[in-house]
Amino acid sequence: MSGKKILLVDDQPRTLEVFKLSIDSDFEVELVDSASKAWKLLTTSSDYAVVVSDMHMPVVDGVQFLTTVRNRFPDITRIIMTADSEQDVAAKAVNDGQVFRFLQKPFSTMELRNALQEGLERHDLITSEKDLLEETLRGSINLLVDLLADAKPLAFGRSQRVKKLVSRVCRKLEITHSWEIKVSAMLSQIGCISVPDEILEAIHSGEKLKAVDQMEFNNHAKYGASLIEKIPRMKSISRLVGWQLKRFDELRILATSERELTSASVLATCLEFDRLVQGDSTAEDVIDEMREDRKRFDTKVVEALATVVVGTKMTTQLGVWELRVGMTLKSDVVDDRGSMLVPRGQVITGIMLKRLQCRAASITAPISVVVSKVDSEQEQEDAAAV
Question: pTM of the entire structure?
Answer without folding.
Answer: 0.58
